[in-house]
Structure formats: structure tokens, C-alpha cells
Amino acid sequence: MSSQRKAEVRRTTQETDIQLRLNIDGSGKASVKTGIPFLEHMLASLAKHGLFDLQIKARGDLEVDIHHTNEDVGLVVGQAAGTTFAISRSRLRMTTVSPAAARRMSSLARSRNSPTFTRFTDSS
Predict the structure, then answer these.
(1) 16-23 β-sheet, strand order
(2) 6-94 has which CATH code?
């Protein structure tokens, strides 16, 4: 495995033009320009707390709606994460967890040496 896990992705459609750079082994620096303030805030927070570097420049048809830009940024982030972690398919499942499990998940998420995602299940 290389010492740094990085990805560069570009997606261009009729509605959007998105460029992304991701360095999983970064320090939490983010430069996110989407034209959607809440999306920018959430992605910058994700990079900061995940300790990875993220650069996104997105241009979309915001005068029509934010839908295409939101969707395509999500696709590009997922593609970059799949590239850096060698993931061919992923799924997100949200559920409630106990405070102890949440602390354990937070601890694992901050591990810089873990190249894979961990699946958490209810043991009760």
C-alpha cells in the first residue's frame, strides 16, 4: 500500500461540472466551493473531523435547483472514497446506538491506519 491514499475525480454533465481531490492521509484541510452553503459546511466538517484533506470545486445549475449539484457532489465523493479505499460497493445504514458503541465507532473512525470500513452490528 502506498504511504498516501489519494484520489482525483472529475464529473461533467449537462447540469454540473465538479472537480474533487481527496487525500485520506491528510490533516483535515478543506476547500469546498459548491454554491450551497450548508453542503460546503458539512463537507468541510467531515474533512476536519475525519482528518482528511478535501478540495471540491462544483459549478451547477443552481438557478434552477440545488438537486443536481447536491447529487453529483455526493457521487463524486463516493467515487473518490471508493478509489482510495478500493471499495467496489458500499451501503449506508443509519440506526441508533448506545453511547458506548458510539464512542467505539468514533475511536475507530479516527484511526489513520485502518484502510477499511468496519461494520457494526447489534450484539443484543
Answers:
(1) 6-12, 16-23, 53-60, 30-33
(2) 3.30.230.40
Angle between helices 37-50 and 67-85 (to 10 degrees): 20
Question: pLDDT truncated to tens, each residue of the chain (124 aa)?
Answer: 445 689 999 999 999 999 999 998 899 999 999 999 999 999 999 999 988 999 999 999 999 989 999 999 999 998 888 777 665 554 444 455 556 555 555 444 444 454 444 444 444 4
* The residue to which cell 457521487 is assigned: 75
Each domain of the chain, given as residue ranges in start order, spans 6-94
Q: Which residues, in sequence order, are CB contacts of 50 under 8 Å at separation 6+?
A: 28, 109, 110
- What radius of gyration, in Å, describes the C-alpha atoms of the chain? 16
Instruction: Identify whether the C-beta of residue 106 lies closer than 8 Å to the C-beta of residue 114.
Output: no
Query: What's the whole-model pTM score?
Result: 0.67
Nearest to 42 by CA among 32, 51, 52: 32
Q: What is the spatial distance between Cα 62 and Cα 34, in angstroms, rounded to a whole number?
A: 9
